[in-house]
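Why does residue order matter? Because the sequence determines the fold. Keep that principle in mind as you read this record.
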Amino acid sequence: MNAISEAGITEWQSAIGRAENIQQILELESLRRYALAIGADPDVERVLPPLAHWAFFLPASTDGDIGEDGHPRRGGFLPAIPLPRRMFAAASIAFKAPLELGAPASLTSSVAQVTHKSGRSGDLIFVEVDRLLEQAGVVRVSERQSYVYRGEGGPVPMPEAAANEPEGERWHPAEVNLFRFSAATFNGHRIHYDRAYATGVEGYPSLVIHGPLTAAKLAGLAMRTGPIKSFSFRAQAPLFLGQSIFLQTGEADEVCAVRCDGTTGMTAKVTR
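Structure:
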């Protein structure tokens, strides 16, 4: 059954402008666990890990508010789009001022845009969310996150390794790395830790590497040559457990994650 209608799109777009505000202390141990989960230096008092703000303001749904896929149930802050697959597809982040650890902070999120597109895989709904992290009246991080909703689609084959291995720094995450990142970010999406669900329900050939984990690895690669003022990334193809990923540095401060078959899984760009 087609879940997309003009009335439905209009209803979802009525969420544009909806906002929520969360306040919390940016405490050290949450950030330290996040740093360990992405393979960064746990001495967070000395140096912040890549995309450190993702350690805070985590989703906090009750058991009764969690859907079958492990995400919070549809509705609430985000529009109740019924398409079954939901992914964090892209983000554009600007680092305005340093985070002050151990101090109060607030995060204001607002729905900025809801758009419908038809692609080769069927209907897609994109939801853009703006986020402002502030401390002491100063914006420390501004971010626009992009979520995509789509239909179920067919089974996804496991990529076959290319005859010539891609260039770049080899990254081969293990199952425990995915579990630790899910735990550190309170991400319940089952495709990252429940193999039977990932393969039997969502049609993937293996567990799926988190997009934010890949983004954090790419941000860390870019930060080796100096601080960055902004970081933007876009997921282009899924990355799977059991296969090597190759982290590459390109021209004009671009970095990317390439699968073993040579397909680019994620691209990112920084400014300095």
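The first helix runs from residue 6 to 13.
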